[in-house]
Design a protein that fits this description.
mainly alpha, Serine Threonine Protein Phosphatase 5, Tetratricopeptide repeat, TolA/TonB C-terminal domain, 3-stranded antiparallel beta sheet, 12 helices, 64% helix, globular
Amino acid sequence: MRRAALLFMMAIFFILGLFPLHGFARASSVNAMTKTFARWSGQEKSDDLEEAKRLSFEAVKLYREGKHSEAIKLAMRALEIQERASGRDHLDVAVIVNNLAIIYQSKKDYKKAESFFLRALTIKEKALGPDHIDVARSLDNLATIYFLRKKYNKAEPLYLRALAIREKALGPDHDDLARTLDNLVELYYIKEEYEKAQPFYLRSIAIKEKGAEAREAVGKVDSRPIPLNRPRPNYTQKARANETQGIVLANVLVGIDGRVKSVKILRHLPDWLDFEAMRALFQVKFKPAMKDGQAVAFWQKVEIEFKLR
């Protein structure tokens, strides 16, 4: 298509050379040809955008099929075409870049994922402004890569900034805040900064308890949730040093998919073992509660034992 456009322009100059025009006639001829070329170029750009969209769609499809290497090849072709058609800083470029980052994250190539997530963030900040909700999503994505690469000090400010953007845009109790709050809790757990984790944990629990699934949890069921695994909780260094033992009693919200949606501690243990109990509980997979032949959300009491071995 581009070669054809070049030949078209060459033809303009060739024709003007064979049939020289003067004054208004020459200007009118050039203008008409230029308009024709502009329409041709616009069609070329439109074709490029459609091709980039098609390749990007196919790349996502391959990714979902687990064909990551093939998905990357198509996504890179889509990116090249999209950049040529709309420029390197267009939001549609950010979409493809973000997709590439997700694919590399799935391949556990965190270094390349970091590079693409960072570029997506930069484009969105420039196009949308630093406080847009889409910027918060990119901040979460990049922070998660830093977390996976154990760059905890780089992840923390990004999670905090994403939280601040969501609070400003959505309010302090919106469901979407729970994800970032949980990310911060997990980060502080890993760093054993339990005092920092606690307020974010309590906010997350409060939001989830007001969520739709929590509201739909039923009081009476035909069969209660049945745990399918029993993850062993970790000891904190302080609890091990103090030889703390005992049982944490919790009320857990088991969703219709059998996953724990929320945890509320009813009986506590010191030395931050409550939080280790919560971490273990979120890893438990249940057969969900049943009522009238349908899976339903249900609050279930669960004990987590801490015993030194």
